[in-house]
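dude i think i finally got it to work??
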Amino acid sequence: MKRIFLIVLDSVGIGEMPDAADFGDEGSNTLRAASTSKYFSMPNMGKLGLFHIDGVKIGKPEALPLGAYARMAEASKGKDTTIGHWEIAGVISKQPLPTYPKGFPEEIIQEFSQVTGRGVLCNKPYSGTEVIKDYGRQHMESGDLIVYTSADSVFQVAAHEGIVPVDDLYGYCRLAREILTGRHGVGRVIARPFEGEPGNFSRTVRRHDFSLAPPKDTMLDLLKGHGKEVLGVGKIYDIFAGRGLTDYVRTSGNADGIDKTLAYMEREFEGLCFVNLVDYDMLYGHRTDVEGYAKALTYFDGRLPEILHKMKDEDILMITADHGCDPSTPSTDHSREYTPLVMYGKNVPAGRNFGTRPTFADIGATALAYFGIEPQIDGQSLLEE
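look at this
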């Protein structure tokens, strides 16, 4: 019974791509930045081949890696979570999703205010923690919604749980998702509930993403269509707007995501378990926290043997990323970087370097080929080599 466990270490890039300067990301290297911390230690990923990947000039390479490995280039025009995951699943986005460095057009804000019956505060790019600090009191006094964006293609709505019940906030975000289509089709509408008092606000774990549906079938749709199980852990359900999944669980962070992945490994199924571990990006990359980023990578590496121990003879483990988010640069946004791919399993050629791949979509094509499904998506299977 064949199973693939595909784990995305959200934002763990491994160095700038040739066009990084076009995105304002020249010099970015997320993994290298984390490796400068005394808390960084990834011996288990090293054993699988991480430090052998093209361009990775940190760590001590193993004499004979246990896994196969590659450096993945992003063919899509973007550097965000949605486009990165879509490409992993076989959809190359030739046009970037819209971004709003000056805030959303007045007609969008007016329509959103009309359908929600609430006013709007902010409407410009902002840090998620700073925006509630600066607008939280006004929101609590007026009931107006805090709307903000970032360098990514996102429409974020923050509201205090004591002022706007979470279910109401989700409903407002669904209305925003209906508005934001066509040329204003942002990748994600994100509900950002928070709690606390002025001067001491904090975001809660009840964040929820309302994503744009992929423009065509992904590996998830094809696997499900061929009777395979497709299990999602973390943000996967949200990123793909629920499409192509047969079961899913949300998570409260990396530790919970690993625990729930291990629980799925106990299940008898044939198909794919697609995992997103978000803490690197959300808690450390965006907050330029090198030490926290390093600790999170070390934590994952320390738990990797638990995952390897539960693998069965026909299982394949794939570990990759969706973009970069260098915590050492002044920017708090994602960075245009190559990503790693490390593969392990009895059916994976140990020590094989697949070089630099032209697209993340080779991962999706490889997964489909492993199950004998013609990869009718972008990308080329590594199994063909």
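The chain has twelve helices and 14 strands.
im so relieved honestly
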